[in-house]
Design a protein that fits this description.
Elements: E1 2-11, H1 15-26, E2 31-35, E3 50-51, H2 65-70, H3 73-81, E4 94-96, E5 99-103, H4 109-115, E6 124-126, E7 144-148, E8 151-153, H5 155-163, E9 170-172, E10 179-182, E11 187-192, E12 197-206, H6 212-219, E13 226-238, E14 246-249, E15 257-263, E16 269-274, H7 276-279, H8 286-300, E17 310-321, E18 333-337, E19 340-344, H9 351-361, H10 389-393
Length: 395
């Protein structure tokens, strides 16, 4: 039998798991990552790629805990994208250097004053008419437009950049099919009979998103529990050169719609719709959700003719630690259970913060990293990077 002793095994290869793996290796941990299918194939590849700064969590006119928690994240990501941060993300495809926020009419004086406060300095700024993105230069646009200090990234390029420096530590394996050795409190080993491979680790980190439920049964973890907050996302495929990255806000505390634009292999573009359109669409059929989105866009951007566009809708779940009344968690979450660390970033932007929490909960790295060969892992296959959902739904 091939036995491999490690400091850390990360289960789940989304951006949170990959970010944590990079940070752990850089900190001297002998760590590996196991992914059962494709890297980023769960929530990561289905995200809109927005590195939030928290502005959308303050649309009620109150500076919320969620807004405060996430406000530092855009700068941490920017440092990494410049090659000066905790992980080198230089070369990642930046779809937009800013996200925008618009309203159909003029923003109320209370909100205008609120966004001008010291708390939002550097996070929100009004955009003059000559600086507007092309989609908002139409004469029919009469509303307010703000520029947010938030990036929009191409997720496959983020995944590929994160995997490059730790490629020799990423493998495809499903531990729900493995034999688990446990003393009831800690996981002593993971045995893959077919590969004759036995893994031991001081800590297991579970960054498996919705896959946590199956892992919890396998590892006999009863707390914490997971919740699913569902979305019904919509995609619009068209030929316009109108890159749009913006929240449309109304009178409520959530964006009416959030639009991001993504390139397709065939040269066309996708408008990817989230916000209230996605959050309120769970009781609609796919056809009803598309019809609703068509009406909403016709109202919000009436000067854009989408009559020849292709439409698709699909369901996803946001996997998070269970909250009362299924409310959105305010921050990233990590909890140690025995020698397992259960972790959810809750938002793409909070992946760096999650890694901070995870590493603070880990046992100290061993002093024998150099002598511990990863050769026994070569028997396992390598996971591919997941394809964007629009490349599969519109094929």
């Amino acid at each position: 039998m091939n036995t491999l002793k490690l400091d850390l095994i990360i289960i789940g290869g989304g951006i949170a798991g990959l970010w944590t793996l990079n940070r752990a290796v850089n900190a001297g941990f002998n760590a590996i990552l196991l992914e059962k299918s494709t890297l980023g194939g769960g929530q990561s590849i289905r995200s809109q790629g927005i590195i939030h700064g928290g502005t959308k969590y303050a649309l009620s006119g109150v500076l919320t805990q969620a807004s405060n928690t996430i406000k530092e994240m855009p700068q941490r990501w920017r440092d990494c994208l410049d090659g000066q941060g905790e992980i080198n993300l230089n070369g990642v495809n930046i779809l937009s250097d800013a996200h925008y926020m618009w309203s159909k009419g003029s923003l109320g004086s209370r909100m205008t004053t609120f966004f001008a406060t010291k708390a939002f300095r550097g996070r929100v700024e009004e955009v003059s008419a000559n600086e507007r993105p092309q989609v908002f230069k139409n004469k029919q646009f009469k509303g307010s437009l703000y520029r947010l200090n938030e990036l929009v990234l191409d997720i496959p390029s983020v995944i590929n950049k994160l995997r490059q420096p730790v490629e020799n530590r990423i493998y495809q394996a499903d531990i729900t099919n493995a034999q688990i050795k446990s003393d009831g409190k800690t996981i002593k080993g993971i045995f893959f009979p077919t590969q004759n491979l036995h893994l031991e680790a001081n800590n297991l980190v579970l960054t498996s998103g919705e896959g946590f439920e199956a892992l919890a049964k396998t590892l006999d973890i009863r707390q914490p529990e997971m919740q699913r907050r569902p979305l019904h996302m919509v995609m619009v495929k068209h030929q316009y050169d109108l890159p749009t990255y913006a929240h449309c806000i109304g009178t409520g505390s959530k964006p009416v719609a959030t639009i991001t634009t993504h390139p397709c292999k065939d040269g066309k573009h996708i408008w990817y719709l989230g916000g209230n359109v996605a959050e309120t669409g769970m009781d609609r059929t796919e056809q009803e959700q598309i019809a609703f989105a068509k009406e909403e866009l016709a109202t919000l951007l009436p000067w854009v003719d989408l009559s020849k566009a292709e439409w698709a809708a699909f369901h996803i779940n946001r996997a998070e630690p269970k909250q009362s009344a299924l409310v959105r968690p305010d921050s990233a979450y990590a909890e140690k259970v025995g020698n397992c660390i259960v972790a959810w970033p809750t938002k793409l932007a909070l992946s760096p913060d999650l890694a901070d929490q995870v590493l603070s909960l880990c046992d100290q790295p061993s002093q024998t990293v150099e002598s511990n060969s990863l050769q026994p892992l070569q028997i396992l296959p390598k996971p591919e990077t997941a394809e964007p959902v629009w490349e599969t739904l519109f094929c």
